[in-house]
Amino acid sequence: MIDKRLLEILVCPACKQDLELKGDRLVCVGCGKRYPIRDGIPIMLIDEAEDPEDSSNDS
Questions:
Q1: What are the tens digits of pLDDT across the range 9-58?
Q2: Antiparallel, parallel or unpaired: β 41-42 and 34-38
Q3: From the centroid of its chain, how far is CA 48?
Q4: Residues 6 or more apart from 17 whose CB is under 8 A from it?
Q5: End-to-end Cα, the chain, rounded Å
Q6: Which residues does 51 contact at the CB level (< 8 Å), separation at least 6?
Q7: How many C-alpha atoms does 30 have within 13 Å on its Cβ side?
Q8: CATH architecture for residues 4-58
Q9: Are 14 and 28 in contact, with CB atoms under 8 Å apart?
Q10: pTM for the model
C-alpha cells in the first residue's frame, strides 16, 4: 500500500517519532496517534489523526 522508502522517511507531525503501518493507518510509535491512508496517500495532518484512546471504538 505504501512504498517502504516513503515509510522510512515519514515521521509523526505531532512528536517527530517513527511510524508503523498497521492496517489502513500509520501509527506513531511515540504518541500513538493514528493517521489514515486514503487512496494510497497518507494523510499526515494532526487534525485528521485519531488519538490513541479512540482505538477502542474500532470494534
A1: 999 999 999 999 999 999 999 999 999 999 989 999 999 999 987 655 55
A2: antiparallel
A3: 10
A4: 11, 28, 29, 30, 31
A5: 23
A6: 32, 33
A7: 9
A8: Single Sheet (2.20)
A9: yes
A10: 0.83
Cell match 515509510: residue?
Answer: 7
Contact residues for 50 (Cβ-Cβ < 8 A; gap 6+): 25, 33, 34, 36
CA distance 8 to 56: 27
- Residue indicated by cell numbers 482505538: 55
HSE, CB side, 13 Å, CA atoms: give it for residue 12.
22
DSSP label at residue 33: -
Q: Report whether 58 contacts 39 (CB < 8 A).
A: no
